[in-house]
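Can anyone check this?
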Amino acid sequence: MKNKVLVLVSLFFLIACGSSNDEKKADNKVLSFSNFDEMKSEFIEDLWKLNPIWASYEGYHKYDDQLPIPNAERRKAQLDFASKWDQQLQTVDEGSLANNDRIDYRLMEDYIEEIAFNINEYRSYEWNPASYNLGGTFFQVLNYRQSSLEERMNALNSKLDHVPAYYAAAKENIDRPTKIHTELAIAQLKGSIGVFEGNLIDSLVKSKVDVAIKESITKKVEVAVVSINDYIEFLEELYETLDSTNSRSFRIGKELFEKKFAYDIQSSFTAEEIFEIAVEEKSILHENMARVADLLWEDYFPGQERPGRNLDLIRMVIDEASKDHVHRDSFITAIRQQIPQLEEFIRQNDLLDLDPDKPLVVRETPKYMQGFAGASISAPGPYDKDAETYYNVTPLDHYSEEEAESYLREYNTYVLQILNIHEAIPGHYTQLVYANESPSLIKNILGNGAMIEGWAVYTEKMMLEAGYGGDQMEMGLMYYKWNLRTVCNTILDYGVHINNFTEEDAMQLLMKEAFQEQAEATGKWRRARLSQVQLCSYFTGYHEIRQLRDKIMELDGDQFSLKEFHKEFLSYGSAPVKYIAELMLEAREGKMGS
């Protein structure tokens, strides 16, 4: 899971609810710009003034001393921002813009439209208590190594002033929350306290700020922790009372799901269309898996009669092959060891240029981020592109022996390699390095999750097509299983929120039809209730990228180069695939016409 857009799901809510302390009423006067680049620069600066938390995550630390306060005034300021920039964009002749600027124009337009949807219709600031988690917000400032530790401490000294007001506003906002989001909030907020009492205080001790500042920060941290604990207690008391009469369903329904899909995924397909394509793809994968499982049968069940049903045949072979996995204590170590192997394969097969100077750090997922995804990437923003990229891996120490065995069978020797392709090389990590080199800040800042996730899924199949895994049929079988998970993510997401899937329905899909282990299926059922639309991003982006590559191969003919396709595709940053496809196809039509 890519975290620049996705793993930091809570960041989305902080952006939607937050407000700078010195907010001013929006000035809707239409401004005059000499060119579109100048307009984009002003838009971005305006965006950061309004969203200092988001700015910090992107590596823009001018407003690190500010803490967003989630309140009605903030939401009005967001709507004023949208109105102001909608008027500004109306002064631009989109048809006169260069191709890259045309994408930027549309991304700005899409973002502006989504603001009103999030505030007036989606309204997650009311029903998702987990959106008010400041652990990552303070960690981003602490982790900014381009400024001195003393500068960071001074910024945090100001930021800490507003933690009590922040959580007071959060309590005011909560109205009939969902039970599962309340449960997540309690767990994550308890973990976030470690950022304040641990990371922040440890950094304070190491700093050279004067004694008065140290005493001030120490006292403010104590007050901040009290505020967080007060919010936790508020949620714990509320949680005990939540039932069908005073809480909301985690299902958002068809109308909201389709709208959110359109804004978040920005696909050429509707949610219903991509759901139907995924259902068809599931059948195709089952046929492919049955063929490979049949070839492997004698290796695992010599002399035994094959079962009559294909699903039983697939399940039995997968169950045996999945016994090949690392020890629970070696899980993170095994991931670290595989990264250089993937890099070497990319170089030997000339699939893509890799930057050896961009560090990737495999680490345990921080406590304040745990509870949502087992693995994710936390990438630096475009302003801090040389900072470390973190590959977050949640340790298995919270699992019982039975649960750990189930998890490790899911992430067996073969699947673990595919996971690393997806998350790291040449998946999320590589794509985000390229995105940070894009000359367009807009494409990076307003990056599209479906493109990001779709690229990671695309690279899994691309690597196997290039020969990764050699002649191991188990790798092919496990790839199909892994890809089936991507397909079933879409079916589950749509099924939960629109078709009212029960837990029994979800387990049938995930365990019986997608061959997932109990621990994985249980985690995915939880995630489908905590998120909306995001699980569709993997298959949607992948499907559109595959369609584009096939079309480019057809148009380029003998001149087609896989490496050049990858470089050209990634050069557009994290723009929606439909916009990238439009420009790549236009470029070829222009050559054909010349």
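Reply from J.R.: I decoded it. Residues 127 and 177 are 4 Å apart (CA to CA).
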